[in-house]
Amino acid sequence: MDWRRWRHAVKLDPARPLDPEVVRGLATTGTDALILGGSDGIRREAVFHLLGAARATGLPVAIEVSSEEAVVPGADWYLIPMVLNTRDPRWLVGAHREAFQNLHRIAPGIPVPWDRVVTVAYVVCNPDATVARVAAAVPPAGPDEVAAWTTVAERLLRADIVYIEYSGRFGDPAWVGAAAGAMRGARLFYGGGIGTAEQAAVMAARAHTVVVGNALYRPGGLECIRATVEGARRVRPGEGGEPIAAGGRLP
Amino acid sequence: MDWRRWRHAVKLDPARPLDPEVVRGLATTGTDALILGGSDGIRREAVFHLLGAARATGLPVAIEVSSEEAVVPGADWYLIPMVLNTRDPRWLVGAHREAFQNLHRIAPGIPVPWDRVVTVAYVVCNPDATVARVAAAVPPAGPDEVAAWTTVAERLLRADIVYIEYSGRFGDPAWVGAAAGAMRGARLFYGGGIGTAEQAAVMAARAHTVVVGNALYRPGGLECIRATVEGARRVRPGEGGEPIAAGGRLP
């Protein structure tokens, strides 16, 4: 399924060990896609093996290219993150420039599959998350700031995806609603702290796509994923109060 | 004339005094357009008056919105600069986010004319230029780095214009050629140190559009502009060695 139609995705961190049975079980949870990505300690070898396991589920697989080590052939999509609210331009475009300059070393002889490249503009909202520390994020002061970042992402950077990232805790629905209200054609992703059907429904009523990560790594992870899929499918984007543009414009 | 077809443009700095006769005279130089913009000391009052004088020439007029003070209605285009090679994310997206958040104060009741907004990704190459100091630029180490920045601008930021900025001195044609070789559909602008027909021809053989600024402010400025227009029209983009994609994709 095309990333423009995902309602629910599971994020797998190549740096965290996971029972192969659990990865296999994802095929039966009803989720739309798997995203391989993490903020720290990504190693190519681990990405390679996790990609194999993820592909075996038959689900669409995206790799989030947060470091050169995540450049591994064979994914359906390559998500290129840019952190909007960072203090360090390295996380916006600097590391990307270096990577393009070093492509001959990173992926010798392999052309960039531009038709599989999807740009993702992050607004990192939880100051306690690893990603906030690693990427030197300055969390927004309120929903107005989230909306303004969304406009920057949509109109100036022309990002494919705007990603409201709370990584590690459940976010403020009003902030996600503010982003929804500023959307014009990109897809709105929400991630962070979703562990129940109710939580999934709250955010899926505001964002196009909800991403569940940590819940999978706890005991009963697959059941938990199933519940969040069910919760996300109970609602439609825009039901949460803020109307949202359809999203998923074609390139 | 649409900005996607300009071969030659004149940049007028609202912070620098200019004889109104000289502005009027620009109508007869053969240039394609006027760009109002500067790096420092921009005041709304001055932009407003210069816009009036520029409009009176009958030429297309763009305002480069490098500060909130440059938000003045009545231009054909609004160029939104983003400095790729900056140390300070404020010059990439930070000031832009603040401006979107403060629109109700900056331009009360006036909707953003999105169909006139043109995004410009700058690579600032002359470390001695005011823009380099003001925008905390880290000049590229060589043509490979310029090419990689161009790819970031084209593929990740989807900028309308990639602008190789030498402001104040004539640049290295090889660096502009490196940018040209990496173009895919955006327009390549070159600015800096063009004062003769020959200099204009060298850069117009590599970039889609050459921008002439300082030359206008010297004695005999209008004759000098005429010479650079003639030089730019002698050649075609791509004749300088590096082939270049046509540029000017429609939104």
From TrEMBL, chains A, B:
Top-level taxon: Bacteria
Keyword Lipid biosynthesis attributed: yes
GO biological process, any: glycerophospholipid biosynthetic process
Gene3D superfamilies to which the protein is assigned, alphabetical: FMN-linked oxidoreductases
Annotated keywords: Lipid biosynthesis, Lipid metabolism, Magnesium, Metal-binding, Phospholipid biosynthesis, Phospholipid metabolism, Transferase
Pfam families: PcrB (PF01884)
Keyword Transferase attributed: yes
Record InterPro entries: GGGP/HepGP_synthase_I, GGGP/HepGP_synthase_sf, GGGP_HepGP_synthase
Recorded catalytic activity of this chain's protein: sn-glycerol 1-phosphate + all-trans-heptaprenyl diphosphate = 3-heptaprenyl-sn-glycero-1-phosphate + diphosphate
EC numbers: 2.5.1.41
Single GO MF descriptor: metal ion binding
EC main group: transferase
HAMAP family: GGGP_HepGP_synthase (MF_00112)
NCBIfam families the UniProt entry points to: GGGP-family (TIGR01768), PRK04169.1-3 (NF003199)
Protein name according to UniProt: Geranylgeranylglyceryl phosphate synthase family protein
Species of the source: Thermaerobacter marianensis (strain ATCC 700841 / DSM 12885 / JCM 10246 / 7p75a)
